[in-house]
Predict the structure.
Amino acid sequence: MAIRASWLRKRNLVRDNVARAFSAKCGISLYSFLREFYDAEIPPPIVDFEGQYIPDSDTLDEILNDIARKAGLPKAAVDACFFRKESFPQFAERLLRSGAYRDMG
């Protein structure tokens, strides 16, 4: 049971960190990001968000660097998890399976 609770805690943490990283740099409120792009019944692909809110590749790189730092992963591992045609929840799940927050226990 402890493993499941830990996994759920990590899922919530990655959700929060992904949402904060993208909303902070892209001019969308945290609430709107979560409602429209993460917690939606059928979350849209990241490319839909990217086209509307991410001004350039440097901004995306800054966001992914921030996520890597918070998740305790190398930037290359985060890049390998990021697929524009997938949704943010899928991206977060890939981060977890790549070892994000592994040091949390």
Observations:
- Residues 44 and 87 are 6 Å apart (CA to CA).
- The chain has a mean pLDDT of 93.
